[in-house]
């Protein structure tokens, strides 16, 4: 678990963990953000959509993820990344399913009535959405028909990285507010948060312990806590140049 970091460092670190996986290894990283940050999906079209001057005035940063998906406003949340090899039981769909199962176990252990969205169940009935938390797909974690955890993936050289957010407080409406007026779309209200579904949300430490317990239960194996290895540190430095660049963030 890391201290809160900037968007570029968080993305570079996740990508470094993916690129540095050893044989029969996997990693789970849990983290927070130094500043409120909007992250874009790898191939999301966002150029000209956001009021960057207003965002700067409010202290909101921008970064583009290595994974796909749509825009997310990161502030009060538990953010995670999982890097896994694509082998045997760990195919793309099974990884997605098992990570969702891990979060379901974590949330149920905290007394939250979370479920996985069913096939064909959506929040917007086929309406195109601009942001990650405006809709959900089969298997995603929901409470009372509203999305609590969202995620996105990328595959690279036989391994997969999944990044995701578990909302502690619901601040996704800031995405609409920071778009230029002509780019705004009606907020479908599909997101929820721990503050909304619990009388008292868990402390950060209790939430992390619950999430770790869910992952250990679903994935099994031997777990240990460690900092970045030398090769991961070197990879992070290399990736940081990309994720810090305006060219990458606003390339589309």
Task: Give the arrangement of secondary structure elements.
Blueprint: H1 7-19, E1 27-31, E2 37-40, H2 52-57, E3 61-64, E4 72-74, E5 77-85, H3 92-109, E6 115-116, E7 141-143, E8 146-147, E9 149-156, E10 159-167, H4 173-177, H5 194-197, H6 204-219, H7 230-243, H8 246-249
Parallel strand pairs: 2-3
Antiparallel strand pairs: 1-5, 2-4, 5-10, 6-7, 7-8, 9-10
Written account of the structure:
Residues 124-128 have low confidence and may be disordered. The chain contains eight helices and ten strands. It has helices at 7-19, 52-57, 92-109, 173-177, 194-197, 204-219, 230-243, 246-249, and strands at residues 27-31, 37-40, 61-64, 72-74, 77-85, 115-116, 141-143, 146-147, 149-156, 159-167. A four-stranded antiparallel sheet has the order 1-5-10-9, with helices on both faces. Strands 3-2-4 form a three-stranded mixed sheet. The two termini are 32 Å apart. Helix content is 32%, strand content 19%. The chain has a single domain (7-249), classed as Bira Bifunctional Protein, Domain 2 (BirA Bifunctional Protein, domain 2, 2-Layer Sandwich), CATH 3.30.930.10. The chain is α+β, with helices and mostly antiparallel strands and 252 residues long.
Radius of gyration: 17 Å
Oligomer: single chain
Q: Report the count of strand segments.
A: 10
Give the strand order of the largest sheet, numbering strands 1, 2, ... along the chain: 1-5-10-9
CATH topology: BirA Bifunctional Protein, domain 2
User: Mean of the pLDDT scores?
Assistant: 87
Helix content: 25-40%
CATH homologous superfamily?
Bira Bifunctional Protein, Domain 2
**What is the CATH architecture assignment?**
2-Layer Sandwich
Helices and strands: which structural class?
alpha+beta
The low-confidence parts are 124-128
Regarding CATH, which class? Alpha Beta
- Spell out the helices and strands N to C: HEEHEEEHEEEEEHHHHH
Major sheet attributes: 4 strands, antiparallel
What's the number of domains?
Answer: 1
**What global shape is seen?**
globular
Distance between the termini: 32 Å
* Relative strand content: 15-25%
Q: How many DSSP helices?
A: 8
